[in-house]
């Protein structure tokens, strides 16, 4: 294999493809990037058996071929090379010479036959949505994905398309996050994408500026899914299992409706959280009464009380909640004001936008001695 290309272009591709490379594996090839050179095109692949990222870039090739190079070593070499044209040359013994200006490295590659086969995705289920919408789907739901695999399907996010409405839902047993959007998709479909996959896609999307109305293409089969965006193909397995019936889990009625300034609520919880840590745990007590929210918390580190103005419609209520869970929901709202719907001290708290139904967060309350 022999080719040359722009070093900055190659460095960007290596950095992004490396998101899917195993940092430590009993299979050496999984710690590498597969480079395939053919017809003046270089295709780079990173794959860890659960997530794969593929990117093709233009090169000037004089000899086609394939080789696996250790991702960490390759990234380190290319990123520290000077700007300009970089060249690669591999021989039959897999020795690879990398040159750029006066710098030259020789490293040993691995046989491309050792690289695992990438799953093929049928196009039975295919749709596109804007990158802006997809970014908000992830940012407003990923925080509620379960971190423990007690129920494996909850370590992923549900994509549920029904009657041209896409509901994206994450749950972890203590909270629920849902993002909703009308989509121009005729077919109903339902699948669960691992949270780790969405986290890597979020990192990738953050590297690009959406000056144009860019789209992300999604193709799903029974066991795998592929996302295509900015010239990258991100392939992931899907999670199997029975996901929560989220529609029945969401309370239909409420006895108290409170409009709060999101920043005021976040600042108040942050102040109360100063005396909460792993050794000194305690729920925050919040009394919504008339036009005030009064927060109290007491741990072995001390006591705190705070208050801020709200607009209340309905019955007064005293409720307890986990500071982190409530903060995550408020930050993910990305809104100046939110509406809290409560149905007494022991029912889940709903966090909703002020003027639409684009998102919904549920936070389970903590039972207080007062209750």
Brief synopsis:
It is built from seven helices and 25 strands. With 371 residues, it is α+β, with helices and mostly antiparallel strands. The protein has a twelve-stranded antiparallel sheet. An eight-stranded antiparallel sheet has the order 6-2-3-4-17-16-15-10.
Verbal overview:
The structure is a single chain. By secondary structure, the chain is α+β, with helices and mostly antiparallel strands. It is 18% helix and 43% strand. The chain starts with a strand and ends in an 8-residue tail after the last strand. The relative contact order is 0.11. The model has no long low-confidence stretch (mean pLDDT 93).
Provide tags for this entry.
371 residues, alpha+beta, twelve-stranded antiparallel beta sheet, eight-stranded antiparallel beta sheet, 18% helix, elongated
